[in-house]
Task: structure prediction
Amino acid sequence: MSEASQLSAENVAGASATARGVRGGSAGSTGSARRAKPVLSEGKKAERRLGLLLCAPAALVMIAVTGWPIIYSVWLSLQRFDLRFPDQREFVGLDNYITVLSSPYWWTAFGVTALLTVVSVVLELVLGMALALIMHRTIVGRGLVRTVALIPYGIVTVVAAFSWYYAWTPGTGYLANLVGPDTALLTERLPALAIIVSAEVWKTTPFMALLLMAGLALVPDDLLKAAAMDGASAWQRFTRVMVPVMKPAILVALLFRTLDAFRIFDNIFVLTSGAQDTASVSMQTYNNLIKGLNLGVGSTMSVLIFITVAIIAFVFVKVFGTAAPGSDQGGRR
Amino acid sequence: MRGATRTGRGRTSRRRAVATFTAALALAPAVAACGSGGGGVTTINVYYAPEQNFQKVVDQCNAKAAGRYRIVLNTLPRDADGQREQMVRRLAAGDTEMDVLGLDVTWVSEFAEAGWVTEWTGENKAEAERGTLAGPLETARWKDKLYAAPKNTNVQLLWYRDDLVQQPPRTWDEMLAAAKQLKDAGKPSQVLATGAQYEGLVVLYNTIVASAGGQILSEDGGRAVMDAGAVEGLRVLRDFATSGVASPSLTNSKEGEVQRGFEAGAAAFELNWPFVYAAMQKGNPELAPHFKWARIPGVTPDVPGKATIGGYDLAVSSYSQHQDEAFETALCLRSAESQKFSAINDGVPPTIESVYAEPEMAEAYPMRDMILEELKDPAVRPLTPAYQSASTIMSKVLSPPGAIDPQATAERLRRELQDAIESKGVVP
Amino acid sequence: MAVIAGTDSTGRKIRWTLLDIVVVVYALVPVLWILSLSFKTPETLNDGNFIPRAWTLENYRLIFQTPEFVRALANSIGIALIATAIAVVLGTMAAYAIARLDFPGKRVLVGVSLLIAMFPQVALVSPLFEIERSLGLFNTWPGLILPYITFSLPLAIYTLSAFFREIPWELEKAAKMDGATPGQAFRRVIAPLAAPGVFTTAILVFIFCWNDFLFAISLTSTEASRTVPAALSFFTGASQFEDPTGTISAAAVVITIPIIVFVLFFQRRIVAGLTSGAVKG
Result:
């Protein structure tokens, strides 16, 4: 726990260092108005007080609810503790970590999860951006498109997964009937993975699109106008003007989608129950922790997933540098 | 541990009062201080899987209790994992407000070993065993002690279409041969079974192994055996999956897909629980008159197949504050009368033999003689506290059945099952 | 927008209409399949037809006859609205501080909130259950609202602070010069400007709370606080082995309606907020 939080504090600090250097023209016209500190120690104090005051409620709620459960999970991961054999509880240090990390099952699931994450997040980003542009700029039926496009995200995941499952079941589903009567795609590994990805992408692209659309809303019209007058093509306007302004929104969308995608559970659980090596690390955690009642090994898996996503987050924040929240405030006012 | 109240009954107005989260923390001690049991009458909380008309059984037993205590039915989620998860979470926390627990037959050894359920002794034990079929009773025992009373049982039958098949096959080989003949003749020929990677695949494999006279774990559940019969079972399962007459979606078939697949008309055989009979009358009334049943196929012609027992047992929580009333409640809920009611109204086969002879059973259970025959010569799933892990491993290693290599797969199962029952290693 | 849209010729309109249709089809076909399942009769449920051959309202009648479902719907609406409101308020406060103010512990807060978003929730459920049980919060509205706030706050804080950074803050300075305190500047100037981010966040948080299954199933035990996604797993089929597909589909359709209403209500604000800000700017 302490290790991980340090890691995260570090990455934010690192990002902030880069931020000070890079910050400047990247945010377009709005950036120019922000600059360095009016250093009044009275005002400074008031500002600190206000800052702490504004953050306190959120911080208190989060720590009150999750502090103990997270510490407890880490503590459990260092023990041999199986609810079915309560007498054999003992402290075993890192043994559980060795057990999990030397298990081929873990690494298969890890590979599947990584693959699903990368493929679905990339697809979601592309589709989400397209969807966001359409939702943002359409001149016909904007309210309708915006609302309809968000419906997939609003459907309860398990129900959506079931509807895909029925659709792909030979004999009873419309999609299965389309591909032919004697093929059961969900029973072959690659097609099954493709179906899982498509269910996941369909369900969560709206999340991406909504965040990106809100980012698009921040792109100043006059900036686009100026770029158009300078003869920039549509693609150039997109990459040079829109994307830089949207960077924070893109970071948040990508970061949270990736973290979520790495913990994929419902869709796989319903669609294949992990058959044909399609299980994810979260399913394995569930099988060991909740179903297997092996609190030691199960908690170890949770901590490992946690460390993995922490690394992913670290990389994201590094890559996005300036766009990371809390990164560049020293120099901004 | 101040929180003595959890059931949430009679607290509606107070709940509203705490509905804002700021107020909640301040009020929590007050809520907790106000214990359960309301008017002084003992409450017996029953936790049981959803069963449409079970509340009526509870009402009957409440009437019998005549005000000495009040039975409250708390319904658990539909899926078995969800049921077990909720009960385990509370038991692990020492929850004193659970009294009677509905356990799937594979959970009894686990709950007993963990010390979560009370042993049945004396008059209660005698009552629970009286007239109860031996197979279901075995699922309620652990280390020669009785920890639960069988409430209802279940066995799969072989279902077939008598417009396609004259004589039901006695063995897997006969069944596959018959299906291949039908296939060559261009008729519906599929053989449907629960082949997805889940408990149903374990049930299928366990049935085949028991029919071949084999063993997966030792009697005491302490050692992974995987003897010759178990290896033979792997061969039969593999041959079935690769025979060309298994459904193409075998590896994604659970009970529901098997049932619907048969109703859709492409199959000649299905291995499934008796619920399919009632479902067929509704789902495909035209096919229903040709929908017939037989004993589950065996592996060798001279030994009839042995079907794996399913169903639910009732146990009393070790943390219950009202043990006597809880045992009485459990006995009432699974009495012959209650079992008859549930069998007819909810389609769950009784565990008390005499109930099968009741005249009303004939209409709902035309197949009752066959159920009884199988129940008297059954297969029980391996009894071990680590059954859930063992099952997860078996379903993983056996899936897809077409890829089984009997010797190598048996070796792998022996190794991984041994780890699982010792709670070592990782469950896939 | 005006830059790219140019003059509204019919050709443009047709092109946009076609694009809109693509989006609508993409989003709705799987939903229509659920809708179709909810209207099918038990006999035709498994025929694989996209459009039901025989229609029935039976499934809807059934779910509204179940008091548990109606109660769960009320729980869902109440819990999701309260949790969303609180999470957005707390998130806005924190995000403003993170984006605008300099104070010690800011990085820790940002880091910790991300950590919380990242820890596998399945591992947190059991300890949370024990805590709530001993506090008397188990199976109450606050018992769900608190975790919902907690697990949506990280997203709320990140989203909001990402948007707050891009707001033209010179307006705030101007307000301060006019004699407004930082608090007043926050309320009167920045809050309206922040509307797109705030409403986007509100939609996402609401959907998160609305769809949660894990906490709902683990931290409730009766209809006193059980929400719809959890209630779905208590629907019974004809037998232990048959899923109540029809009623589940009908319930899924019904519980999607509040989401549509919520999104309809808020999506306007996503741009409206910005335009008003841009005009002032």
Observations:
- DSSP finds 13 helices and no strands in chain C.
